[in-house]
Amino acid sequence: MPSAIALAGKSAEQNGGASGDIAAELAYIAERYESTHADIGVLLEDLGRRSGVPEIKQFASAYAACQRCGGDLEEVCLKTAELLIGRISVRDEARALISQKKLDVLLLSIMPVAVLAGLNILGYSYLAVLYETAAGRVVMSLCLALIVCAMLWGIRITKIDL
């Protein structure tokens, strides 16, 4: 595992640059192992705790459990990586859907205002009754309030933390 971490650090350095966070962290773990022969499981758990990334914490826990119990480390690492990649892809898809729905809320909120603006420009006399009479003003005020409520409700619905 120490040589795999060192190789992963070099690969991350080539892909993301030497200043990348993951490259620096993997280099730190490899350096700590080389200098003090610290337990890789403890170093990985420390990385997971400091990063706050749940996937790193889970990988470190799986590695530590496998190391303690003498399990097939390669198989556990492959399965854990597969599960973590699946979770990340599901999270990315959910984020894409949420951002699409936020755009839908925005467009649906703007649509009635755009239609009214177009009707005012093209045929003001058609809508004059809504602006010049008391009943029309009440109806338009109610419609405006409903549009604002729908927009706020849509924003609240799409405010999801992943």
Strand content: under 5%
Mean pLDDT: 85
Structural class: mainly alpha
Please count the helical segments.
7
Number of self-contained structural domains: 2
The gyration radius over C-alpha positions equals 28 Å
| Percentage of residues assigned to helices | over 70%
Using DSSP, what is the number of strands?
Answer: 0
What string, H for helix and E for strand, traces the elements in order?
HHHHHHH
Q: Can you tell me about this structure?
A:
With 162 residues, this protein is mainly α. It has 2 domains: 2-71, no CATH class; 93-157. The protein has 7 helices and no strands. Helix 2 packs antiparallel against helix 3 (40-51), helix 3 (40-51) packs antiparallel against helix 4 (54-69) and helix 5 crosses helix 6. The longest helix is centred in the middle third of the chain and has 50 residues, at 73-122. The two termini are 31 Å apart. The mean pLDDT is 85.
Task: Show the helix and strand layout.
Layout: H1 2-16, H2 21-36, H3 40-51, H4 54-69, H5 73-122, H6 124-132, H7 134-157
Helix pairs in contact: 1-2, 2-3, 3-4, 4-5, 5-6, 5-7, 6-7
